[in-house]
Amino acid sequence: MRYLEVRGSRIRFHESGDPAAPPVVLLHGIGRSLEDWALQHPLLDGEYRVISVDMPGFGLSQRMPLPTTLGVLADGVWATLDELGETRPVHLMGNSLGGAVSMTMLAGAPERVSTLTLVNSAGFGKEVTVALRMLAVPGLGRQMLRRIDRLTAPRMERMIFADRTLVTAERIEMAIRIARQPDFAAVYLEIAKELGGLRGVAAAWRADLLSRVAGNARPTMIVWGDRDRILPSTHLAAARTAFPHAQSHMFAKTGHMPQIERPEEFAGLVRPMLAKVAV
């Protein structure tokens, strides 16, 4: 893994494949890291320049000076790509929060996006796991985020996967390492507050963002896991309604991260769409 200085912040990224090949950019979810995309690098980098990023304030990246919003995260990713010299249109793939950031990137700079792949993405319904809604309780959210340790981290990881064997010691250690970063709790709470509260994911930003993205339609793939305990699989129907031009797929016996639980199937599903679009 490598780091870049981006607008005064140290941003962590991973890159593989031929730098001259069409670029694919992979974005993780809230409180997560680029490790969530590790299995896709070797599956895609034979044909693409594959770049995964710890979004500002998450993973092992430093935060941006401004309060964390979807716009700040999107701008941070664009600035990171600029520092990497990648100014061509990109194939964007985002999981969970990363899906909402990807849509924000498309809405703000449609000329820089070739395709959009949304993986169990935020933005299509108010329902979300109670653990995230509890972060809105004053004082409680910060306490919860400061108590991610060897007792609580495995429980959090088990919420993500239908296949419990994926809750490995390495993933638990990484979750703890991320939670110990100095700005982790503050950044997590800032973006969580923008996205919603005790009643779930707020409707206003969702409606605005989906409208802006629909006005800049790109070839789109929307996928979900049918056993997602973070963002329920019923959101896929809403996503299909919002983006009728999109392809979609429901992975069976799969949780919140199909790119990890079904890596080969996931890559095989998205590769034809990427190949059709010249960059």
TrEMBL record:
Keywords (A to Z) from UniProt: Hydrolase
Superkingdom per UniProt: Bacteria
MF GO annotations: hydrolase activity
Keyword Hydrolase among record annotations: yes
SUPFAM superfamilies per UniProt: alpha/beta-Hydrolases
Residue intervals of the AB hydrolase-1 domain: 22-263
Keyword Hydrolase on entry: yes
Protein name per its UniProtKB record: Alpha/beta hydrolase
Organism: Actinoplanes lobatus
